[in-house]
Design a protein that fits this description.
Blueprint (H helix, E strand, L loop, with lengths): L1 H12 L1 H14 L3 H12 L4 H5 L1 E4 L2 E4 L9 H13 L8 E6 L5 H9 L5 E7 L2 H13 L17 E6 L17 E6 L6 H4 L4 H4 L15 H10 L5 E10 L5 H10 L5 E6 L5 E7 L1
Parallel strand pairs: 3-4, 3-6, 4-5, 6-7
Antiparallel strand pairs: 1-2, 7-9, 8-9
Organism: Lyophyllum shimeji
GO molecular function, one term: protein methyltransferase activity
GO biological process, one term: methylation
């Protein structure tokens, strides 16, 4: 049976990847029928992370299910780097807003990596499915919701998730938003239309297009973020804005932050494969 399943997977994945993925499925499957179902789903193009139901992200193992965007290794890379660059402590705590939080991967990993009691995080997303998953991931990771009041009152790092659309010009007036923030993070939808049409079916048929498509040029959400950043009292002096960007977008996003958000100090971080992946703005 195993050889037959391996042959089915190898047709679409190649022999090396097929052997690796079959091993992971065998570890997860509780009985032969379930393993067969997993292989069938994978051979039809469904992402392995949805089939297994989880995805490692740094030291965390996050729950995954469609249509919520699957956490990517390039995101993991810059979040770990951001944690290394963030000076936060229980005596000098930070408040973070994660825009389009999805699975909650960015704030939850930061909560895990930074000292306890040093970080209060708030994730917002337009998708109820994403918010449900983010809250489940917080519970799995043992990260509690924020208690009312300032983050200085929390003895542990916290995560709260609420429904919100940061493309809405009135987003900052939402009663659930509690500025000012020290850190804003976002892995927004940034794929332009011409690239979205070329994405593999494993992406377009399973992951939420609202988490992928960033408008005709892919830059719509960065303009919305710039609008938030330049608002009085939305972020504290010395705040950091960390934005994941798509292929060949780093300079454009850097320009948006400089021109429209009035940020003078910016830098670009490459991912492990040498692509310009993150724009960091220091206020």
């Amino acid at each position: 049976m195993a050889s037959k399943l391996l042959s089915i997977l190898a047709t679409s994945l190649g022999p090396t990847q097929a052997r690796l993925e079959l091993k992971w499925m065998q570890q997860q499957a509780r009985h032969p029928a379930q393993l067969t179902e997993m292989v069938t789903r994978r051979s039809r193009g469904e992402p392995l992370q949805y089939i297994l139901g989880s995805q490692p992200f740094g030291p965390l193992n996050l729950l995954t299910r469609p249509p919520v965007l699957i956490p990517r290794p390039e995101t993991e890379h810059w979040v770990i780097k951001l944690a290394d660059r963030t000076s936060a402590s229980p005596t000098s705590p930070k408040s973070l807003l994660d825009l389009g939080t999805g699975s909650g991967c960015i704030p939850l990993l930061l909560c895990h990596l930074l000292p306890q009691g040093s970080l209060r995080t708030h994730g917002v997303d337009i998708s109820p499915q994403a918010l449900d998953l983010a809250k489940e991931n917080a519970a799995v990771c043992g990260i509690p919701p924020s208690s009312p009041g300032s983050c200085a009152r929390n003895t542990r790092n916290t995560f709260t998730a609420t429904l919100g659309n940061f493309l809405d010009p009135m987003f900052s007036e939402d009663a659930t938003i509690d500025p000012p923030y020290d850190i804003i993070t976002c892995n927004p939808p940034y794929i332009p239309w011409h690239e979205y049409l070329k994405l593999p079916r494993s992406v377009t048929a399973y992951e939420d297009p609202k988490a992928l498509f960033g408008g005709p040029t892919g830059l719509d959400f960065y303009h919305a973020i710039a609008h938030l950043v330049r608002q009085t009292n939305f972020i504290r002096p010395g705040a950091v804005v960390a934005l994941e960007v798509g292929h060949n977008q780093a300079q454009d996003v850097e320009r948006i932050m400089r021109v429209h958000a009035h940020v003078r100090d910016t830098e670009i971080w490459p991912d492990p494969w040498g692509k310009q992946r993150t724009v960091l703005a220091h206020l």
